[in-house]
Amino acid sequence: MKQHKPLESCLHPGCIEAGCDEAGRGCLAGPVFAAAVVLKPGFRCEELNDSKQLSERERNRLRPIIEQSAMCYAVEMCTPDEIDELNILWASVKAMHKALSRLTVTPEHILIDGNRFHPFQQIPHTCVIKGDGKYLSIAAASVLAKTYRDEYMQNLHNQFPVYGWMHNKGYPTRAHREAIKQHGITIHHRQTFHLIEKQLKFEW
């Protein structure tokens, strides 16, 4: 486990605060997943960090800890069709809205990883660039979004093994791009996959 600076428990102490993050923005295939997490007051977990800084094994170990320790959480997704219709940025925001709407406790404030968001039900929100490495609730959301999405892509791999989704999870590896050239795309590919370089330039 890499050593890292302990994350802040919340932005507004004494407030019911939900952290939100997404996984799968830069992929060629599969949905974008988002999670919303409300942690219990006093929750601490020294190992918890931005999911990208954790190994797959570490993320999978932390997932049940987050689920059992959270006041409430929800994980949702937007399909490739929704991504093609909205673009990846706003599909990510829509997935966050879906997750927030499923929380069993209404948050009084929302922490968003990134710098773009549409207001949700008039609840105040704060966008935090690289927030998954600063606040526990966003880090928790990043771990849930990532592990749920990875699991989803691993299950799809069984239907479409030639694309290597078990390993690349839909990201644009050389092997994945070569498989697309050789076999074409599936219903799980984003039709705008050739624009992925442009999509990754969205401010977030």
UniProtKB/TrEMBL annotation:
Its EC number is 3.1.26.4. It is found in: Cytoplasm. InterPro entries: RNase_HII, RNase_HII/HIII, RNase_HII/HIII_dom, RNaseH-like_sf, RNaseH_sf. Residues 15-204 form the RNase H type-2 domain. It is an enzyme of class 3 (hydrolase). GO terms for cellular component: cytoplasm; ribonuclease H2 complex. One of its GO terms (biological process) is DNA replication, removal of RNA primer. Belongs to the RNase HII family. PANTHER family: RIBONUCLEASE H2 SUBUNIT A (PTHR10954), RIBONUCLEASE HII (PTHR10954:SF18). This is Ribonuclease HII. It comes from bioreactor metagenome.
